[in-house]
Backbone:
C-alpha cells in the first residue's frame, strides 16, 4: 500500500526563500495498492481569485518509475509502487511586471521548490544574492545566468522557460532584453 498526495498550487512570485505557494484546488490523498496507476487530471487553465492561471508543470516523486516531470496539459498517469508519492501541479499567474524574469529551482527528488541558492548571474555577479533571495531578475538588458552543478546534493537536470517551450540541458542560459516570464531550473529526477 502507498499513499498518494496531489497538491495543485499557484507559484508565488513574492520571493524564493520562505515563499508559500497557495493551493488553487483541494489536495487529493489516496491510499493505493502497489502496481495501481492513478490518473491526475490537469486543466490547461483555471480561474483562481478572479485571475486566470496557466498550467506550467506536474512533478511527482516516489512513483514506481522514480521521479516524473511533465509539461503536458493533459491527464497524467502516475504509476504506484511501494513508496508514498508526492505530486505537485504548478500553475502560473499572468505577469503584470515588465522586464522581469522570475527564476527558481525545483528539486524533482522531493517534488518541491528549493530554498537553497542555485544560480549565478554571469553578466553581473552583484545580482547573485538578490536573485537567489527574491527570485526576480530585471531584463532591461541581456543577461546570462548559470545554474549550480548541484543543489541540495542533487545534480542539475534542465532549464525550462514559461511562457514558451524552451528547454535546455545546458547549465548556462540567456535571458533576452525585455523578456518577461518564468525560468525554472530542475534538479534530479530520471532524465
Residues:
Amino acid at each position: 500500500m502507498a499513499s498518494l498526495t496531489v497538491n495543485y498550487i499557484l507559484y508565488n512570485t513574492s520571493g524564493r526563500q520562505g515563499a508559500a505557494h497557495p493551493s488553487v484546488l483541494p489536495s487529493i490523498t489516496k491510499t493505493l495498492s502497489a502496481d495501481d496507476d492513478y490518473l491526475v487530471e490537469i486543466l490547461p487553465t483555471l480561474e483562481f481569485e478572479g485571475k486566470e492561471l496557466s498550467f506550467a508543470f506536474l512533478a511527482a516523486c516516489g512513483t514506481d518509475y522514480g521521479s516524473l516531470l511533465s509539461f503536458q496539459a493533459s491527464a497524467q498517469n502516475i504509476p504506484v509502487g511501494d513508496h508514498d508519492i508526492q505530486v505537485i501541479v504548478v500553475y502560473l499567474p499572468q505577469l503584470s511586471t515588465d522586464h522581469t524574469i522570475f527564476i527558481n529551482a525545483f528539486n524533482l527528488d522531493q517534488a518541491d521548490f528549493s530554498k537553497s541558492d542555485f544560480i549565478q548571474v554571469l553578466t553581473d555577479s552583484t545580482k547573485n544574492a538578490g536573485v537567489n533571495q527574491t527570485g526576480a531578475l530585471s531584463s532591461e538588458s541581456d543577461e546570462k545566468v548559470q545554474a549550480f552543478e548541484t543543489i541540495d546534493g542533487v545534480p542539475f537536470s534542465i532549464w525550462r522557460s514559461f511562457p514558451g517551450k524552451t528547454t535546455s540541458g545546458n547549465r548556462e542560459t540567456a535571458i533576452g532584453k525585455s523578456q518577461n516570464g518564468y525560468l525554472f531550473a530542475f534538479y534530479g529526477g530520471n532524465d
Remarks:
- The domain at 2-93 is CATH 3.10.20 (Ubiquitin-like (UB roll)).
